[in-house]
């Protein structure tokens, strides 16, 4: 079972905070592989996957950012009608709840990768493999 490390960073909902954070990451030579932002009135949660997770963790700690590391699953979804539905139906069949998901940009034609956070990773991996649904490895996710 190979999961991908995702950082959920709490960002104050103020002008310039996202620019400040992404510049900090860029100046450290860390490349954002994917991101998703959910916001509330006072703060946002920036979910990112990066090419250098260990360095990112140290950088965020050293600079006082509040964050959490979560394990997520990367799925290689065929880029066609029903591609995402097939993955979600498989997870539903195994009674696995999808907490959230978002697209993951890749450079492979015909594929639309997806990041999925579930309530039961073991069951998710088992059902996805049994349905021959391709999963992203950690190395692939960090190198896309």
Structure description:
With 144 residues, the chain is α+β, with helices and mostly antiparallel strands. It folds into 2 domains: 4-70, VC0802-like (2-Layer Sandwich), CATH 3.30.2130.10; 72-143, VC0802-like (2-Layer Sandwich), CATH 3.30.2130.10. Helix content is 33%, strand content 33%. The protein is built from 5 helices and 6 strands. It has helices spanning 17-27, 53-62, 83-93, 121-130, 138-143, and strands spanning 4-12, 32-39, 43-50, 67-75, 98-104, 113-118. A 6-stranded antiparallel β-sheet has the order 2-3-1-4-6-5. The relative contact order is 0.21. The model has no long low-confidence stretch (mean pLDDT 93).
